[in-house]
Amino acid sequence: MSDINENWKVLFISIQQGRQGYGPSSQGSGKKPEKCGICKYYDIRSEMMGCIEDGMGDADDLGYCSRLDFVCGYEMVCNAYASGGPVTDYESEDKSPIDGGSKDIF
Length: 106
Description:
By secondary structure, this protein is α+β, with helices and mostly antiparallel strands. The chain has helices spanning 4-17, 46-56; strands at 23-24, 42-43, 62-65, 70-73, 76-77. A hairpin with a 4-residue loop joins strand 3 and strand 4. The chain starts with a helix and ends in a 29-residue tail after the last strand.
């Protein structure tokens, strides 16, 4: 997603429609505890991160949700969560997985 305005538009529509329950993780909110950053749809491959940086200026704690089609934050949660992520292109790195994640990420 290299267009920040398009990303905000898609994100706003998703939040406004309320179907995905996208928002910050909070205790007692009834939302799933699984964060976007460890979802199988959370794409943090090198090429995608370059695209996010080009369009948004900063990619810290961001990734691309391939299911909902917008850039989202690592710490956010939503109803589209599915275990098995994130999507990376550095599975061969010798790193420890982030808590709850099934793949190695920095």
